[in-house]
């Protein structure tokens, strides 16, 4: 699950569907999943571009997760920092 794509999908759903019990339930599930994901530590180190960082990573900057909610721990796909901002817009 790409964090950015999930956020864009939810923004579209909220805009197009304009509420209702099914959309509300989906938003609750979305918020619950991100609460669970963002509460975990990331197994990844040095997420700065080109290895320029000090070895620290925030789970908020992880670009994608497995569908079971665990953090994607492979090197491909880093660093993409727009996902947390998009998800914040969904949750506001």
Descriptive report:
The chain is built from 3 helices and no strands. With about 90 residues, it is mainly alpha-helical. Helix 1 runs parallel beside helix 3. The two termini are about 20 Å apart. Helix content is about 45%, strand content about 0%.
What's the gist of this structure?
The protein has 92 residues and is mostly helical.
SSE topology:
Elements: H1 3-17, H2 21-38, H3 83-91
Main beta sheet strand tally, sense and closure: none
Average predicted local confidence, pLDDT: 83
Uncertain residue segments? none
Oligomer: single chain
Q: Gyration radius, to the nearest Å?
A: 14 Å
**Percent of residues in beta strands?**
under 5%
**End-to-end C-alpha gap:** 21 Å
Category from helices, strands and their pairing: mainly alpha
Task: Based on the model shown, name its key terms.
92 residues, mainly alpha
């Amino acid at each position: 699950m790409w964090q950015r794509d999930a956020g864009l999908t939810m923004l579209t759903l909220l805009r197009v569907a304009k509420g209702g019990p099914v959309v509300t339930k989906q938003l609750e599930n979305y918020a619950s999943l991100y609460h669970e994901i963002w509460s975990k530590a990331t197994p990844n180190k040095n997420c700065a571009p080109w290895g320029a960082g000090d070895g620290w990573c925030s789970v908020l900057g992880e670009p994608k997760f497995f569908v079971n909610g665990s953090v994607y721990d492979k090197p491909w796909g880093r660093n993409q920092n727009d996902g947390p901002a998009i998800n914040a817009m969904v949750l506001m």
